[in-house]
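Task: complex structure prediction.
Instruction: return structure tokens for all chains below.
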Amino acid sequence: MPPGGGGPMKDCEYSQISTHSSSPMESPHKKNKIAARRKWEVFPGRNKFFCNGRIMMARQTGVFYLTLILILVTSGLFFAFDCPYLAVKITPAIPVVGGILFFFVMGTLLRTSFSDPGVLPRATPDEAADLERQIDIANGTSSGGYRPPPRTKEVIINGQTVKLKYCFTCKIFRPPRASHCSLCDNCVERFDHHCPWVGNCVGKRNYRFFYMFILSLSFLTVFIFAFVITHVILRSQQTGFLNALKDSPASVLEAVVCFFSVWSIVGLSGFHTYLISSNQTTNEDIKGSWSNKRGKENYNPYSYGNIFTNCCVALCGPISPSLIDRRGYIQPDTPQPAAPSNGITMYGAMQSQSDMIWDQ
Amino acid sequence: MATEVHNLQELRRSASLATKVFIQRDYSDGTICQFQTKFPPELDSRIERQLFEETVKTLNGFYAEAEKIGGSSYLEGCLACATAYFIFLCMETHYEKVLKKISRYIQEQNEKVFAPRGLLLTDPVERGMRVIEISIYEDRCSSGSSSSGSSSGSGSSSAGGGGAGTR
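Output:
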């Protein structure tokens, strides 16, 4: 009779790994090699991870760096060249308010870009097989040679019929309002859109940070634009317009950047304010899922009825924790979700486990 | 067929996984986290319907509490925003507190109710809140043999993975 799961390793040639305790495999010095891998290292989506899994972004981050540079350079020039003059001439409150706005913008931007938007982990092989079985039973045995009908389930939410689609990549039925982002290759809960400026998807967990980012950025842009114009006007009154421009050339650059950004950013803030107050996602609005044009009986089943509640829930509601557990360690006996490129679901699970075994 | 009473440790060691049942989410109330209370036929001979339903209803109650929108959740949200979310470095959110309660409850239910009947509940948070996974174990008459005894395809991946290390 083999000893219990916690028995000393020297006594048995092999030890059972079916228990959930973290009892190591054959030799003690191999433990570090196998236990070192965290879940983010084998994450199946197209994401980049930094700081050992604490930071999560999309794969293409070039535009995000552009956003950062634009904000940092414009604000930096404002604080360096315009603020000294304005603080003396008008009030020192200007750089203070500007500073607060700037930190708020940077904080919300980084929070939006670095957090998990609400990614749904892919189905384990057991779940996927169980779902496939249920779908086959529902469809009946299909004759080979033609493509089976698309897999959908219908639910009634608050009186509206909502279709849940089956995601072939993640092998799950997507919850309502979830959508699969093709850029990140993940299903995201309450998917709003993929924002290249922020370098991440915008979904359930980071929508409020995104909204506060664009709102505070609108204020910051308008603020900088207004005070740069004020600065140039005040200087022109003393030394003439062209001399004023020569004395502070940075103001010209800031004014140009702000002028071109203000339209799009303020417009975007207005649009998202409308979305929040009617509790819709960008995805739903673009598709016109709940618009009256589809039919008189069509209404948004997720709305709470009044604008105030919708806003409160979107901005101050509870935040669910991340479901993908990026920094957890991979347990040797846990089945990993299979990669979609292999048609066979079992092979993926066996391969990741055999990788660990042969790693010794 | 009378099943032997197991405790949780024995279950993992000497019993082998026969199949898994998945309780899916119930979306009829919207996107809040609720699970279907429909009794799966595979558990018919294993556990009383009432006990099962009670467990799922209690879990649903916990999730509703976690996602409850009201004064305290608004207060938490506003306080967090005012401190630029640094407050979450020190304290955990209400949702996380309730999730910890849930995993304690599941552990307790496994020990008292499910393991003696040869069943094991997996915390939904480990499955992305999509399903409640119930593993059904069969008794092994001969001790020490833990080959993958499952005949259906669904159980073989995890049992096969466990079996690969032991032989």
